[in-house]
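Service request form, structural biology core

Requester: graduate student, group of Dr. S.
Request type: structure prediction, single chain
Budget code: on file
Notes: please return the result as structure tokens.

Sequence provided:
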Amino acid sequence: MTKEITMEMITIPKSDYVALVAAKEELEDIEAFDRAMKDDSESVPHEYVVRLIDGESPLSVFRDWRGFSQSELARVSGVNRVQIVDIESGRKTGSVATLKKLADALGILIDDLI
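Core staff response, request fulfilled:
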């Protein structure tokens, strides 16, 4: 026994369709906002997100957000300051072990530095 699928069609003015799509998108935005407000995890402030989007070195951005100078981060993480300078400038990427030390010192995930 096969089940026949029927599709019913309706016709509405394009302006109504556009309004429905806009309302759906607005509802999705509200739901995303509500989920974000329930999330207890730390959020990166807007100004730092903009810097990341603009292509600035993630290490530099997160270091600045946490209030560390390069020397302070070197001391706290155990990573040589020259390595930090090289990673921030893009001359080097840093080993996984180095990035892990830096991420731990900054209280972020290693993925945030990649």
